[in-house]
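Quarterly update, task 2.4: S-adenosylmethionine-bound model.
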Amino acid sequence: MQAYHIPVLLQESVNALLGSDRDGVYADATFGGGGHSREILSRLSDKGRLIAFDRDEDASANAPDDSRFTLVSNNFRFIHNYVLYYGYPGGIDGILADLGVSSHQFDTAERGFSFRFDAPLDMRMNAAGEKSAKDVVNGYPQEELEKIFYLYGEVDNARRVADALIRERAKGEIATTSRLNAVLEPFCPAVAAHKYLAKVYQALRIEVNDEMRSLEKFLEGASDSLKPGGRLVVITYHSLEDRMVKNFIRCGNVEGRLEKDLYGRIQAPLQAEGRKPLLPAEAEISANTRARSAKMRVAVKVGEGAESACGEKLSGGKSRNEGAKSACGEKRSGGKSRNEGAKSERTSRKESLAGKQAKGGTAK
Ligand SMILES: C[S@@+](CC[C@H](N)C(=O)[O-])C[C@H]1O[C@@H](n2cnc3c(N)ncnc32)[C@H](O)[C@@H]1O
Protein backbone atom coordinates (compact mmCIF):
# COMPACT_ATOMS: atom_id res chain seq x y z
CA MET A 1 0.00 0.00 0.00
CA GLN A 2 1.21 3.49 -0.82
CA ALA A 3 2.15 5.73 2.13
CA TYR A 4 -0.43 8.38 3.01
CA HIS A 5 2.23 11.08 2.83
CA ILE A 6 5.99 11.37 3.22
CA PRO A 7 6.65 14.35 5.50
CA VAL A 8 8.83 17.07 3.97
CA LEU A 9 11.65 18.83 5.87
CA LEU A 10 10.68 16.69 8.85
CA GLN A 11 13.69 17.12 11.13
CA GLU A 12 14.34 20.69 10.07
CA SER A 13 10.78 21.85 10.73
CA VAL A 14 10.38 20.08 14.07
CA ASN A 15 13.79 21.32 15.24
CA ALA A 16 12.75 24.87 14.35
CA LEU A 17 9.36 24.47 16.03
CA LEU A 18 10.42 23.02 19.36
CA GLY A 19 13.81 24.52 20.12
CA SER A 20 14.73 23.04 23.48
CA ASP A 21 11.23 23.14 24.96
CA ARG A 22 9.74 19.68 25.51
CA ASP A 23 6.90 20.67 27.84
CA GLY A 24 5.06 23.15 25.68
CA VAL A 25 1.76 23.29 23.82
CA TYR A 26 2.02 23.07 20.03
CA ALA A 27 -0.24 22.95 16.98
CA ASP A 28 0.19 21.07 13.72
CA ALA A 29 -2.18 22.95 11.39
CA THR A 30 -1.96 20.38 8.58
CA PHE A 31 -2.05 16.90 10.11
CA GLY A 32 -2.40 14.84 6.88
CA GLY A 33 -0.66 11.50 7.39
CA GLY A 34 0.58 12.71 10.78
CA GLY A 35 4.29 12.47 9.97
CA HIS A 36 5.14 15.82 11.53
CA SER A 37 2.75 15.27 14.44
CA ARG A 38 4.30 11.91 15.32
CA GLU A 39 7.78 13.43 15.29
CA ILE A 40 6.63 16.28 17.55
CA LEU A 41 4.95 13.85 19.97
CA SER A 42 8.08 11.68 20.06
CA ARG A 43 10.03 14.67 21.34
CA LEU A 44 7.49 16.11 23.82
CA SER A 45 7.49 15.23 27.51
CA ASP A 46 4.41 13.94 29.34
CA LYS A 47 3.47 17.56 30.03
CA GLY A 48 3.54 18.51 26.34
CA ARG A 49 0.40 18.85 24.26
CA LEU A 50 -0.30 18.84 20.51
CA ILE A 51 -3.44 20.11 18.81
CA ALA A 52 -3.65 19.13 15.14
CA PHE A 53 -5.98 20.25 12.35
CA ASP A 54 -7.08 18.81 9.05
CA ARG A 55 -10.14 19.69 7.01
CA ASP A 56 -10.02 16.29 5.26
CA GLU A 57 -11.90 13.58 7.18
CA ASP A 58 -9.61 10.91 5.64
CA ALA A 59 -6.76 12.24 7.79
CA SER A 60 -8.52 11.25 11.02
CA ALA A 61 -7.71 7.57 10.34
CA ASN A 62 -4.05 8.47 10.99
CA ALA A 63 -4.63 10.03 14.42
CA PRO A 64 -2.31 8.54 17.06
CA ASP A 65 -3.81 7.14 20.24
CA ASP A 66 -2.02 9.51 22.60
CA SER A 67 -3.52 11.46 25.52
CA ARG A 68 -1.34 14.47 24.67
CA PHE A 69 -2.89 14.70 21.20
CA THR A 70 -6.15 16.19 19.87
CA LEU A 71 -7.24 16.24 16.22
CA VAL A 72 -9.63 18.97 15.08
CA SER A 73 -11.35 18.10 11.79
CA ASN A 74 -11.76 21.67 10.68
CA ASN A 75 -10.17 24.41 8.63
CA PHE A 76 -6.97 25.79 10.18
CA ARG A 77 -8.27 29.30 9.57
CA PHE A 78 -10.12 28.91 12.90
CA ILE A 79 -6.95 28.09 14.84
CA HIS A 80 -7.26 30.99 17.26
CA ASN A 81 -10.82 30.01 18.27
CA TYR A 82 -9.62 26.50 19.09
CA VAL A 83 -6.56 27.70 21.00
CA LEU A 84 -8.93 29.75 23.19
CA TYR A 85 -11.47 26.93 23.39
CA TYR A 86 -8.84 24.46 24.61
CA GLY A 87 -7.86 26.90 27.36
CA TYR A 88 -4.74 28.76 26.21
CA PRO A 89 -5.69 32.47 26.30
CA GLY A 90 -2.04 33.37 26.97
CA GLY A 91 -1.00 31.65 23.75
CA ILE A 92 0.81 28.46 22.78
CA ASP A 93 4.49 27.72 22.16
CA GLY A 94 4.60 26.88 18.49
CA ILE A 95 2.61 26.27 15.31
CA LEU A 96 3.62 24.29 12.25
CA ALA A 97 1.88 24.36 8.87
CA ASP A 98 2.88 22.16 5.93
CA LEU A 99 0.60 23.62 3.27
CA GLY A 100 -1.03 22.16 0.18
CA VAL A 101 -2.37 18.69 -0.51
CA SER A 102 -1.20 15.34 0.81
CA SER A 103 0.01 12.54 -1.45
CA HIS A 104 -3.06 10.61 -0.36
CA GLN A 105 -5.35 13.33 -1.75
CA PHE A 106 -3.27 13.68 -4.86
CA ASP A 107 -2.98 9.94 -5.55
CA THR A 108 -6.59 8.98 -4.77
CA ALA A 109 -7.99 9.06 -8.31
CA GLU A 110 -11.62 9.75 -7.41
CA ARG A 111 -10.72 12.91 -5.48
CA GLY A 112 -9.98 14.54 -8.85
CA PHE A 113 -6.82 16.41 -7.76
CA SER A 114 -4.62 14.91 -10.44
CA PHE A 115 -4.66 15.09 -14.23
CA ARG A 116 -3.04 11.62 -14.25
CA PHE A 117 -6.33 9.79 -13.65
CA ASP A 118 -9.71 9.91 -15.30
CA ALA A 119 -11.98 11.01 -12.47
CA PRO A 120 -14.83 13.37 -11.57
CA LEU A 121 -13.73 17.01 -11.36
CA ASP A 122 -13.88 17.38 -7.60
CA MET A 123 -10.68 18.62 -5.81
CA ARG A 124 -12.37 19.39 -2.47
CA MET A 125 -10.10 18.79 0.51
CA ASN A 126 -13.19 18.70 2.67
CA ALA A 127 -15.61 16.33 0.96
CA ALA A 128 -18.49 18.34 2.47
CA GLY A 129 -17.19 21.59 0.95
CA GLU A 130 -19.78 23.47 -1.01
CA LYS A 131 -17.88 24.02 -4.26
CA SER A 132 -16.13 21.47 -6.50
CA ALA A 133 -13.84 21.97 -9.50
CA LYS A 134 -16.80 20.98 -11.68
CA ASP A 135 -18.76 23.95 -10.29
CA VAL A 136 -15.85 26.31 -10.96
CA VAL A 137 -15.16 25.06 -14.50
CA ASN A 138 -18.83 25.04 -15.50
CA GLY A 139 -20.19 27.95 -13.51
CA TYR A 140 -17.60 30.74 -13.38
CA PRO A 141 -17.74 33.57 -15.89
CA GLN A 142 -14.85 33.80 -18.35
CA GLU A 143 -13.11 36.74 -16.58
CA GLU A 144 -13.16 34.86 -13.26
CA LEU A 145 -11.68 31.73 -14.84
CA GLU A 146 -9.00 33.80 -16.52
CA LYS A 147 -8.21 35.51 -13.22
CA ILE A 148 -7.78 32.30 -11.24
CA PHE A 149 -5.64 30.66 -13.95
CA TYR A 150 -3.45 33.74 -14.12
CA LEU A 151 -3.21 34.46 -10.39
CA TYR A 152 -3.22 31.00 -8.84
CA GLY A 153 -1.50 28.99 -11.57
CA GLU A 154 0.50 31.63 -13.45
CA VAL A 155 -0.84 29.82 -16.51
CA ASP A 156 0.33 31.02 -19.94
CA ASN A 157 -2.58 31.92 -22.23
CA ALA A 158 -4.99 32.17 -19.28
CA ARG A 159 -7.49 34.14 -21.35
CA ARG A 160 -7.49 31.67 -24.23
CA VAL A 161 -7.84 28.71 -21.88
CA ALA A 162 -10.81 30.36 -20.17
CA ASP A 163 -12.32 31.06 -23.58
CA ALA A 164 -11.83 27.43 -24.70
CA LEU A 165 -13.56 26.19 -21.55
CA ILE A 166 -16.54 28.47 -22.09
CA ARG A 167 -16.93 27.17 -25.66
CA GLU A 168 -16.53 23.53 -24.61
CA ARG A 169 -18.97 23.72 -21.72
CA ALA A 170 -21.62 25.19 -24.06
CA LYS A 171 -21.66 21.70 -25.65
CA GLY A 172 -22.35 20.04 -22.28
CA GLU A 173 -21.05 20.00 -18.70
CA ILE A 174 -17.31 19.34 -18.27
CA ALA A 175 -17.51 16.80 -15.47
CA THR A 176 -14.28 14.79 -15.66
CA THR A 177 -10.54 15.36 -15.59
CA SER A 178 -10.16 13.65 -18.98
CA ARG A 179 -12.58 16.07 -20.64
CA LEU A 180 -10.77 18.99 -19.02
CA ASN A 181 -7.43 17.58 -20.20
CA ALA A 182 -8.77 17.36 -23.75
CA VAL A 183 -9.65 21.08 -23.68
CA LEU A 184 -6.18 21.90 -22.34
CA GLU A 185 -4.26 19.70 -24.77
CA PRO A 186 -3.79 22.32 -27.53
CA PHE A 187 -2.27 24.71 -24.98
CA CYS A 188 0.28 22.24 -23.60
CA PRO A 189 3.85 22.53 -24.88
CA ALA A 190 5.17 19.42 -26.65
CA VAL A 191 7.82 19.02 -23.97
CA ALA A 192 6.68 18.77 -20.33
CA ALA A 193 2.94 19.05 -21.00
CA HIS A 194 2.38 17.81 -17.47
CA LYS A 195 3.84 21.07 -16.09
CA TYR A 196 1.21 23.06 -17.92
CA LEU A 197 -1.58 20.77 -16.72
CA ALA A 198 -0.21 20.95 -13.16
CA LYS A 199 -0.53 24.74 -13.19
CA VAL A 200 -4.15 24.67 -14.35
CA TYR A 201 -5.02 22.00 -11.77
CA GLN A 202 -3.23 23.92 -9.05
CA ALA A 203 -5.22 27.07 -9.89
CA LEU A 204 -8.53 25.19 -9.75
CA ARG A 205 -7.61 23.46 -6.48
CA ILE A 206 -6.67 26.76 -4.84
CA GLU A 207 -9.98 28.29 -5.90
CA VAL A 208 -12.10 25.28 -4.89
CA ASN A 209 -10.57 25.20 -1.42
CA ASP A 210 -10.30 28.97 -0.98
CA GLU A 211 -6.67 28.34 -0.06
CA MET A 212 -5.41 31.91 -0.23
CA ARG A 213 -8.07 33.27 2.08
CA SER A 214 -7.64 30.33 4.48
CA LEU A 215 -3.91 30.99 4.57
CA GLU A 216 -4.41 34.69 5.28
CA LYS A 217 -6.85 33.93 8.10
CA PHE A 218 -4.52 31.23 9.40
CA LEU A 219 -1.53 33.56 9.55
CA GLU A 220 -3.55 36.13 11.46
CA GLY A 221 -4.97 33.49 13.80
CA ALA A 222 -1.59 31.84 14.29
CA SER A 223 0.12 35.06 15.23
CA ASP A 224 -2.70 35.83 17.70
CA SER A 225 -2.37 32.29 19.10
CA LEU A 226 1.36 32.38 19.87
CA LYS A 227 2.75 33.54 23.18
CA PRO A 228 5.72 35.96 23.04
CA GLY A 229 8.69 33.88 21.93
CA GLY A 230 6.34 31.28 20.36
CA ARG A 231 7.45 29.96 16.98
CA LEU A 232 5.71 29.74 13.63
CA VAL A 233 7.06 27.32 11.03
CA VAL A 234 5.45 27.28 7.59
CA ILE A 235 6.34 25.04 4.63
CA THR A 236 4.99 26.29 1.29
CA TYR A 237 4.96 24.71 -2.18
CA HIS A 238 4.34 27.55 -4.60
CA SER A 239 5.43 31.13 -4.98
CA LEU A 240 2.06 32.68 -4.17
CA GLU A 241 1.88 30.95 -0.77
CA ASP A 242 5.48 31.73 -0.02
CA ARG A 243 5.02 35.41 -0.86
CA MET A 244 2.04 35.64 1.49
CA VAL A 245 3.96 34.00 4.33
CA LYS A 246 7.03 36.14 3.72
CA ASN A 247 4.94 39.34 3.62
CA PHE A 248 3.04 38.41 6.75
CA ILE A 249 6.21 37.72 8.69
CA ARG A 250 7.78 40.97 7.56
CA CYS A 251 4.77 43.29 7.69
CA GLY A 252 1.94 41.60 9.61
CA ASN A 253 -0.24 41.45 6.49
CA VAL A 254 -0.13 39.27 3.39
CA GLU A 255 -0.06 42.20 0.97
CA GLY A 256 3.33 43.32 2.26
CA ARG A 257 2.13 46.78 3.42
CA LEU A 258 4.61 48.24 5.88
CA GLU A 259 2.81 49.81 8.82
CA LYS A 260 4.94 51.91 11.16
CA ASP A 261 4.36 53.60 14.47
CA LEU A 262 5.24 57.23 15.27
CA TYR A 263 8.88 56.28 15.69
CA GLY A 264 9.18 54.51 12.34
CA ARG A 265 9.09 51.02 13.86
CA ILE A 266 7.38 48.37 11.75
CA GLN A 267 4.26 47.12 13.47
CA ALA A 268 4.47 43.39 12.83
CA PRO A 269 3.75 40.68 15.40
CA LEU A 270 6.42 38.29 14.14
CA GLN A 271 10.12 38.43 13.46
CA ALA A 272 11.78 36.25 10.82
CA GLU A 273 14.43 33.74 11.81
CA GLY A 274 16.92 34.02 9.00
CA ARG A 275 16.49 36.03 5.85
CA LYS A 276 16.06 33.23 3.32
CA PRO A 277 13.74 30.27 3.39
CA LEU A 278 15.21 26.84 4.05
CA LEU A 279 15.02 24.41 1.10
CA PRO A 280 15.19 20.62 1.25
CA ALA A 281 18.62 19.07 0.68
CA GLU A 282 19.24 17.38 -2.68
CA ALA A 283 19.07 13.97 -0.99
CA GLU A 284 15.54 14.64 0.25
CA ILE A 285 14.43 15.85 -3.19
CA SER A 286 15.86 12.72 -4.83
CA ALA A 287 14.08 10.52 -2.32
CA ASN A 288 10.79 12.43 -2.49
CA THR A 289 10.11 14.53 -5.60
CA ARG A 290 7.20 16.24 -3.87
CA ALA A 291 9.77 18.02 -1.71
CA ARG A 292 11.28 19.79 -4.71
CA SER A 293 9.24 22.98 -4.47
CA ALA A 294 9.18 23.20 -0.66
CA LYS A 295 10.35 26.32 1.18
CA MET A 296 10.32 26.65 4.94
CA ARG A 297 10.07 29.95 6.79
CA VAL A 298 10.36 30.38 10.54
CA ALA A 299 9.28 33.34 12.67
CA VAL A 300 9.12 34.19 16.36
CA LYS A 301 6.30 36.09 18.05
CA VAL A 302 7.58 39.38 19.38
CA GLY A 303 6.53 40.87 22.72
CA GLU A 304 7.66 41.14 26.31
CA GLY A 305 10.05 38.37 27.29
CA ALA A 306 10.41 36.96 23.78
CA GLU A 307 13.80 35.73 22.62
CA SER A 308 14.80 34.40 19.23
CA ALA A 309 16.65 31.10 18.92
CA CYS A 310 19.97 32.96 18.93
CA GLY A 311 19.15 34.78 22.15
CA GLU A 312 18.24 38.11 20.55
CA LYS A 313 15.61 40.02 22.59
CA LEU A 314 12.40 40.54 20.61
CA SER A 315 10.29 43.35 22.04
CA GLY A 316 7.14 44.56 20.24
CA GLY A 317 7.68 46.70 17.12
CA LYS A 318 10.64 46.23 14.83
CA SER A 319 13.02 48.91 13.70
CA ARG A 320 13.25 49.33 9.94
CA ASN A 321 16.57 47.57 10.00
CA GLU A 322 15.34 44.61 11.97
CA GLY A 323 12.45 44.18 9.57
CA ALA A 324 14.77 44.09 6.61
CA LYS A 325 17.53 41.96 8.08
CA SER A 326 17.37 40.33 11.49
CA ALA A 327 20.44 40.22 13.69
CA CYS A 328 19.73 36.51 14.06
CA GLY A 329 19.77 36.02 10.28
CA GLU A 330 23.17 37.69 10.06
CA LYS A 331 24.56 35.56 12.85
CA ARG A 332 23.28 32.42 11.14
CA SER A 333 24.90 33.24 7.85
CA GLY A 334 28.22 33.66 9.66
CA GLY A 335 27.60 30.32 11.35
CA LYS A 336 27.05 28.60 7.96
CA SER A 337 23.72 26.96 8.65
CA ARG A 338 22.59 24.85 5.67
CA ASN A 339 20.11 27.54 4.82
CA GLU A 340 22.43 30.51 4.65
CA GLY A 341 25.60 28.74 3.64
CA ALA A 342 25.54 25.75 1.33
CA LYS A 343 22.03 26.36 0.05
CA SER A 344 22.06 30.11 -0.39
CA GLU A 345 23.38 29.88 -3.94
CA ARG A 346 20.68 27.41 -4.91
CA THR A 347 18.01 29.58 -3.26
CA SER A 348 19.03 32.70 -5.13
CA ARG A 349 19.33 30.83 -8.41
CA LYS A 350 15.86 29.40 -7.89
CA GLU A 351 14.44 32.76 -6.90
CA SER A 352 15.94 34.54 -9.86
CA LEU A 353 14.61 31.81 -12.16
CA ALA A 354 11.20 32.16 -10.57
CA GLY A 355 11.45 35.91 -11.04
CA LYS A 356 12.48 35.59 -14.68
CA GLN A 357 9.65 33.29 -15.50
CA ALA A 358 7.31 35.22 -13.17
CA LYS A 359 6.28 31.74 -12.09
CA GLY A 360 7.57 29.08 -9.76
CA GLY A 361 4.29 27.32 -8.91
CA THR A 362 4.01 23.64 -9.46
CA ALA A 363 1.31 21.57 -7.88
CA LYS A 364 2.52 18.91 -5.56
C1 LIG B 1 1.02 18.54 2.77
S1 LIG B 1 -0.25 17.78 3.68
C2 LIG B 1 0.42 17.67 5.30
C3 LIG B 1 1.19 16.43 5.53
C4 LIG B 1 1.64 16.24 6.95
N1 LIG B 1 2.54 17.25 7.38
C5 LIG B 1 2.27 14.88 7.11
O1 LIG B 1 3.40 14.79 7.58
O2 LIG B 1 1.64 13.88 6.75
C6 LIG B 1 -1.41 19.06 3.87
C7 LIG B 1 -2.64 18.67 4.66
O3 LIG B 1 -3.24 19.89 5.10
C8 LIG B 1 -4.61 19.80 4.95
N2 LIG B 1 -5.10 21.16 4.75
C9 LIG B 1 -4.83 21.98 3.71
N3 LIG B 1 -5.46 23.15 3.89
C10 LIG B 1 -6.10 23.09 5.07
C11 LIG B 1 -6.90 23.99 5.81
N4 LIG B 1 -7.20 25.20 5.34
N5 LIG B 1 -7.38 23.60 7.01
C12 LIG B 1 -7.08 22.36 7.50
N6 LIG B 1 -6.35 21.46 6.84
C13 LIG B 1 -5.86 21.81 5.64
C14 LIG B 1 -4.84 18.91 3.76
O4 LIG B 1 -6.11 18.29 3.84
C15 LIG B 1 -3.68 17.93 3.87
O5 LIG B 1 -4.06 16.75 4.56
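Highlight for this quarter: The first strand starts at residue 25 and ends at 28.
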